[in-house]
Amino acid sequence: MDLDLVRASGMTEGEAKVYASLLKLGTTTTGPIIEKSGVANSIVYRILNNLIEKGLVSYIVKEKTRYYKASQPTRLLDYIDEQKEKLEQNKKLLQAIMPRLQMSMVPSQETSVQIFEGFRGFQTAWEYCYAVLKKGDEYYSWGIYPVQEQRFHLYWQRDHKKRARLGIIAKLLFNKGTELEILKNRNRYRGCDARYMPVDIKTPAWFVAYKNVTGIFLQRKTPIAIQILDQQISESFKAYFEEFWRRSKKM
Question: Are residue 33 and residue 141 in the same domain, yes or no?
Answer without folding.
Answer: no
